[in-house]
Automatic annotation (TrEMBL):
Native organism: Paractinoplanes ferrugineus
Stated role: Catalyzes the dehydration of methylthioribulose-1-phosphate (MTRu-1-P) into 2,3-diketo-5-methylthiopentyl-1-phosphate (DK-MTP-1-P).
Pathway as given in its UniProt record: Amino-acid biosynthesis; L-methionine biosynthesis via salvage pathway; L-methionine from S-methyl-5-thio-alpha-D-ribose 1-phosphate: step 2/6
Lineage: Bacteria, Bacillati, Actinomycetota, Actinomycetes, Micromonosporales
UniProt name for this protein: Methylthioribulose-1-phosphate dehydratase
PANTHER family the UniProt entry points to: 3-OXO-TETRONATE 4-PHOSPHATE DECARBOXYLASE-RELATED, FUCULOSE PHOSPHATE ALDOLASE
Class II aldolase/adducin N-terminal domain segment(s): 24-217
Entry keywords, A to Z: Amino-acid biosynthesis, Lyase, Metal-binding, Methionine biosynthesis, Zinc
Transmembrane segments: none
Amino acid sequence: MTAHPADVVSTASYGAAADPYDAAGLSATARALYERGWMPGTSGNVSVRSGVDAVLITASGLGKGRLTSADTVLVRADTGAPVRPGSPRPSAETCIHLAVYRAFPTVGAVVHAHPPYATALASRRSRAGGGPVRFTDLELIKGMGRSYLDSIEIPLFANWREVPRIAAEVGEHFAHPATDPAPALLITHHGATTWGADLAEASDRLECLEALCQLALLIGD
Ligand SMILES: CSCCC(=O)C(=O)COP(=O)(O)O
Ligand SMILES: [Zn+2]
């Protein structure tokens, strides 16, 4: 991942508790997803696990195409509160990331974006009565952490105005996960969230999910 010129300066402000390469990785991922049109304006957020009790996440409300390492915040994994006083405000959707980390201890990175096909398919499914979005037979299913070609169900959540309510429903859902749960969720009229061992895997899964959603819309019912 190529460092943004601003990262060379801003990573120096990070202490030992957050790896400066993680901060550079977060901001580079956000910029790349912005370039793809999946994080328009200030939308989207990215995080990585930082040790056992903290998460490094993008700051809230900033243009994701201009993000630098300085625009990341180390938060407590239990409460989402910034570890250091004077940090920028963490993403408004931090609680959703934390719900994923709590449910899946091996997850190292979470990516949330507003990609158009995933958002459209989630919204269409919601209008048709809701329930998980299921993909069948498509080869790209293997890109979602599956070694076999079968079907995969992506849970769909309501886009409550109170983000903690979305996070609570995500936490409840994954408290009793299906066997081999998909590393992804959709939020109706909002976007998609994927996760993986690291930023590369979480981003690849977002790419596959968006492609699956595009194909599903092309194929139709
Ligand atoms: C303009 S998008 C509204 C908020 C949102 O859905 C999002 O993904 C970005 O929130 P953040 O607080 O992480 O900037
Ligand atoms: Zn969002």
